[in-house]
Amino acid sequence: MSNSGSDQIRLTGQVHPADYFRFVERDEMDWQAWTDVLHGKVAGAIFRGVLPPDVCERIRRNFWSSPMLRSDERSARDADYWCGNHLFTASSLDWYLAEADRARPALETLCAGPGRTPLSLLDEYRDHLAGEGVRLRLAEHRGRRAAPFRLRSRADSDALVLAPHDDAEAIRHARHIDGCEVQRVSRLCNALMCVENNSGGELLYWNISPDRKSRHAFGMSTDSYGYPIESLSGIEQLTVPVHAGDVYIFDTANVHAVAPCGSDGVFRTTINLLMGELDEETTVYWS
Predict the structure, then answer these.
(1) Three-state SS for 278?
(2) Which terminus, N or C, of the chain has the lesser number of Cβ atoms within 10 Å?
(3) Is the pLDDT reported for residue 76 higher than 60?
(4) What sign does the CA torsion over 143, 272, 128, 279 have?
(5) What is the CATH classification number for the domain harbouring 60?
(6) Cβ neighbours around 279 below 10 Å, total
(7) Chain segment 40-66, per-residue pLDDT in tens
(8) CA dist., res. 267 & res. 80, Å (int)
C-alpha cells in the first residue's frame, strides 16, 4: 500500500505515444491484433462477443457451484470470489506449482464443453502461432507446469472493483518466484475472458508505466496494488467497457483498474491469465 502522505505525490514514469496508447477493437477474434499487443505495437485489444452466451452462462454456473470456489473472509462485503491461484500472490513458488498440478484438471473442466470456449481459444492461438514457427505452452519451472488460468468474480457498486495498480515490475522482481521463467518474458500482458458483467466494471487504463523511483515512493517495491487515484490526476486515461463474451489483452506495465459495477448484486466474472514472449520461438501463459 502507499506510504504516509503519498497521496500528495503524482505518479511518474514512461508516457507512451498516441499510436501505442490505444485499444484495438474488433467484432471477431483477430490473433494478429492479439500478437501486436504481445509485441508492444499497441497497448491493448478487445474482441467483442467472442464467447457465445450459452458458453458464458455454462462457465458462470460452473464457477458459482464449484467446490473450488473461495472468498476473502477478511472482506466484510464478501465480494471477492475465485477458483485457482495467482503466482504473484502465492505463498511460495513450490506451493503454487503443487496447487497448479492439483487444480489444473478441475480448472479446465470448469471451462470445457461444446462451443467456443477459453480452452478452444487457446488452441486457436496455439495453431496461429505454430504457423509462424512459435510454440505456445504453459509456463514451467524445472519441468513443473503452471496453472493455465484462474476464474475471479468481484462486485462493488460504490468503489473501484480493483484499485489502480501495475503488474509487470512487481512480478519481475518478486523474490518468492526468483528463477521462474515468467520473470524473463519480454512484455507481460494480462489476458481476460469475461463471462459475467451486466453493467459497469469498465477497464480503466492510464498512460503511465511507473518508474522505479515512483514505485518506491508509493511503497510498491514488492507490491503493485493501490496507487491513490489522486496520484493519477492529469494523466491520460482510457475507459474500456467490458461485457460478457468479450475477450481482451493489455500490457500490464501501465497502471490499470476496474470501475465500480453498475448496481448492487452485479458481479464481474472473468477468466484471467498472464501471457508473454519468452523468446522468438516461445510464448508462455500462466495464472
Answers:
(1) strand
(2) N
(3) no
(4) negative
(5) 2.60.120.620
(6) 13
(7) 999 999 999 999 999 999 999 999 999
(8) 9
Share in percent of the chain as helix, strand, coil (round to 5): 25, 30, 45
Contact between 138 and 252 (Cβ < 8 Å) = no
Does residue 96 lie within any of the structural domains? yes
Place of cell 466494471: 201
Angle of CA points 29, 35, 40, to nearest 5°: 135
Is the entire prediction scored with pTM above 0.90?
Answer: yes
Tell me the one-letter amino acid at 95.
W
**Residue matched to cell numbers 483498474:** 257
Question: In this structure, is residue 105 part of a structural domain?
Answer: yes
Number of domains in the chain: 1
- The residue whose grid cell reads 500482458 is 189
Would you state the cell numbers that stand for residue 30, as one nine-digit string? 483477430
Note whether residue 99 is domain-resident.
yes
Grid-cell match 503519498, residue found: 6
Burial code (b: 16+ CB inside 10 Å, e: under 16) for 92-117 equals ebeebbeebeebbeebeebbeeeeeb
Q: Give CA torsion, residues 230, 243, 72, 286, to 10 deg.
A: -100
Structural domain includes residue 1: no
Return the C-alpha cell found at 226.
493501490
The domain of 18 spans 6-286
- Reduce the DSSP state of residue 281 to 3 states and report it: coil
Nearest Cα to 251, choosing from 93, 84, 45?
Answer: 45
**Distance from C-alpha of 217 to C-alpha of 237, rounded to nearest angstrom:** 22
Rounded Cα gap, residues 21 and 122, in angstroms: 26
